[in-house]
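Working notes for the structural subgroup meeting. M.R. asked for a predicted model of this chain before we commit to crystallization trials. I am recording the input and output together here so anyone reviewing the notebook later can reproduce the run.

Input as submitted:
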Amino acid sequence: MRKRFLPAVVLVSAWCGLAAAQNAAELKGHNGLVYGVAFSPDGKTLATAGFDNTVKLWEYPSGKELRTLTGHTAAVYGVAFSPDGKTLASSSHDQMIKLWNIADGKMVRELKGHTGIVDSVAFSPDGKSLASGSADKSVRLWNAADGKELKKLGDHANSVYCVAFSADGKTLLSAGADGLIKLWDVTSGKETKALKGHDGAVNGAVFSADGARVLSVGFDRLVHVWDVAKGTETKKLGPTPDDLYGIAYSRDGKQVATIGYGGNVTTWDLDTGKALFQKKLPTVGYCVAFAPDGKALVSGHETRPAGGGVVYVTPIGK
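Returned structure, recorded in token form:
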């Protein structure tokens, strides 16, 4: 099982510009490692989830810190924007999902029901529902308007680390410590497929833009590519130098990015299966996202030896 972490305490706050960290800009402000990153739909706001129990909102690309969202009582694992960009969801070790108003930073709703760490949360494409995955092994759907649980889709044999909707909202994926990726029919709530092939935990998974493929990463140091209709694996990318934690899909659909325990951030060409760009950053990386213009990667890390948190913005190809 993926190891868990306790928040560390160190006080830092600044946008440090292009730093000595191998041409990567540093976004500092969290007092614990950064485990989740997400961009707003318009690309102007970056949300970061910290093990200091907070969520921070940053103006992008200036790096100006806009506000800190406080209310969780334990480490924050995941963040996700609603499709209209007005609401942010956060998930935490405190077993809660919280919804926040982006305009004023106030919490508007709490979603209660999980009995373990809520590792991941995702809005449906229409913004009406949310999905969540938890260390209690369950995958759940929630009504975004009132915070009530709509249905429990089912369980994994171990912790659920990732959930994601297909672009049409009809299918949900969940991935976990049991080495499986499960596909769920959102309307019926039924499990339709189990994708098997990882050797170890699956830490991250995403749908392609057309929903035809799923891409996933884990502790086997490979990027797995799956055919959704057939439920079969079509190729593997790698191996990488790291146990992989995070994966992101580019907006043009041609590349994926990965981040791992050794701090290596990599982009991959999906057609050729080859690594296009790789840079080793100074510390452990847990999450990654493509910048809105596709010219940089944004990744969440812990700082050592102090144990704080930092976000690196790494220009691709430099």
